[in-house]
What does this fold into?
Amino acid sequence: MPGLLEAFDVLAWDLPGHGRSPAAAADFTISDLADGVLDAVDAARGGGRNQEIHYAGDSIGGAVGLHLLLDHPGRVAAASLICTGARIGEPRNWLDRADLVERSGVDAVVDGSRQRWFGPGFGERHPDRADALLDSLRAADPVDYGRACRALASYDVRDRLGKVTAPVLAVAGSHDQPTPVATLREIADGVVHGRLEVLDGVAHVAPAEASEEVTTLLRDHHS
It folds into this structure.
């Protein structure tokens, strides 16, 4: 999303054991991940703390964003929460998924992710982009992928949404199965200053599926 680099200083992060991030030393919660994001921001700024940030995150990244808003309310000027929820899925399903990946490897969930992540025809129109995302999933450390699943199993901030006072943009994909439109509407309606945008034909990875539309929404919301 190069359009963001023209307007903001962007710091991207990966989950533990994913992408360029090292494996975690122990289990973690979504709140722990939020703390880690702020630590990374403060380190990138040369140790300066208590400065406000603008945050955007998709899926589990959106869950991290909600914990940033709740646990560190003075640090987040505004947030965009994309294809996510105040709770995501059912705890039992996440625990079963963690067990499967820890037993059989991340390959065991790649085909299912291919079906759920992308809207109709995206994989055919943009095979390189879809394959790159799935390859990044396939390369994840299975132990840390399982830890992320277990973190989502214990994640539920629905009863705390009313405490979020920073402006929140909730972005939903019309074809998103893991976090359907209703879960984003719950966020937009539950926080003090929320707004919902729905992207037609998009599923669970809106920043990849509709990068121009998401870039425009983020620039408008965070300007």
In short: The two ends are 16 Å apart (CA to CA).
